């Protein structure tokens, strides 16, 4: 108890003690978050635009490592298909990363909310320690965050954290019907002629956009990519994954014990689906040496319309992959001006390997991106609605590459000239690209 000779002295001391107590409580409130979210009020400001209240280092790179070097952020996407969440596509070490937090920047007041993240590592890691992951955070109520930071702690200084724009926040009409996703281009890729042929076939069949996750390629290939970028067909996503992890060019850890398989292909495919979720009606998932070839329809649009009519509620369509070995060729379409261009001339490869009785052909996909939650390479891991295997008489994946059944003689191969239906348009279009790129 405090004893005073005069009443006003006691009053002053009491006021000082009350003020000090309020300051201490306010400081503790900032330092100790509750179990669900923490709310931090920014410094008062009257002269800065609201967008500048969102602090942190704005990220421009495709792959951003966090300080733990066990978590790599690709991009966050708004996802309101079940509840209002931000789904961050990333790569994590499946054992070492146990806890992450989303630091949301809300508009228009610029408040920062910290939310606990659910880390969902995709099941198809194929033994590699690192794999694709969804880092999912429930967004706070009455908040339309434009940016988010990912951190290992609910505490910290947001000015020091990388700040990612949350994509897909605004609904957009479907500007294109088909987007092709190719991942990943690596190994100083130089199969120039086949790449141009594939690109032109995609366009003939109905693709308006081709998204390519590029690790590296040859100088000649760079010229071709530049042409397609300027044309408006290609969108190049830099993919320097080998700057962060030891990458394998194989699909399974037992074949090559590195950090992550096949240059992080699965992560790139998932990012491509979410990147195009609100700007493409369908997404085509295949490699640059593969073409989903309709056999009963002139293009993808009429084929998909028919398949959807026959399979209502289906958003995942899987097509059988068939190998057309580049070791067997025909003398047809031996175009002299193409002989100086490095790469395979697919028009000369019209013999496919027969099915093997006890081997299931892998499949590639055309999907409605709004019905996909997680995808692998040959199937979708989680989705809304059904998947359907498209019969081979409707379409197949034309895959011209090194043989899988290398011991087969030519007589054992099946002659299949379905590709030649498009030969006139394809030759004209390829010649146009070659002339304009001066190859």
UniProtKB/TrEMBL annotation:
GO terms for molecular function: glycosyltransferase activity. Belongs to the glycosyltransferase 92 family. This is Glycosyltransferase family 92 protein. It is found in: Membrane. Its EC number is 2.4.1.-. Keywords: Glycosyltransferase, Membrane, Transferase, Transmembrane, Transmembrane helix. The keyword Transferase applies. InterPro entries: Glyco_transf_92 (IPR008166). One of its GO terms (cellular component) is membrane. The keyword Zinc does not apply. It is a single-pass membrane protein. Its main location: membrane.
